[in-house]
Amino acid sequence: MKIPFINLRNISDPRGNLAVIEAFKDIPFEIKRVYYIYGTKGNQPRGFHAHKTLRQLAICLKGKCRVILNNGREKTEVMLDKPDMGLIIDKMVWHEMYFEDDSILLVLASDYYNEDDYIRNFNEFIECVNR
Ligand code: T46
User: Which of 17, 30, 55, 95 has an alpha carbon 20 to 30 Å from 119's alpha carbon atom?
Assistant: First the structure.
């Protein structure tokens, strides 16, 4: 499974770094929602679902986030630990996130929150992939 990393555009100068993400230029979808996860606990993984239609870009702004991605045929593991590296979490990709304590994960999402878009049962996810 090819890891869908995006190296974010970075503008660096003696003051520090500025990373830019523009819809349809840097990522292949419109951004309708932004959320972030913070105050994470190392022993409390998150995710364990796939989305039917939602596409997302995840960036670890602080700390570390290990992400397991599974498209129903292949599984891969990636480490997010740089604020200039984005990971596309595409629709129909089961994902699990294991954080370091006190990490921050920023997520840009292609649509508004809709619980009906979630598949939170792994067996149901596999059935949908093979349908
Ligand atoms: C994802 C990964 C990367 C809302 O009400 N609005 C929102 O925009 C979001 C994202 C969540 N919620 C509610 C739904 C749950 O009652 O917040 C609660 C926690 O959400 P969840 O258990 O889905 O959190 P994670 O960290 O497991 O998953 C989140 C996103 O929900 C999900 O889309 O792909 O981060």
Answer: 30
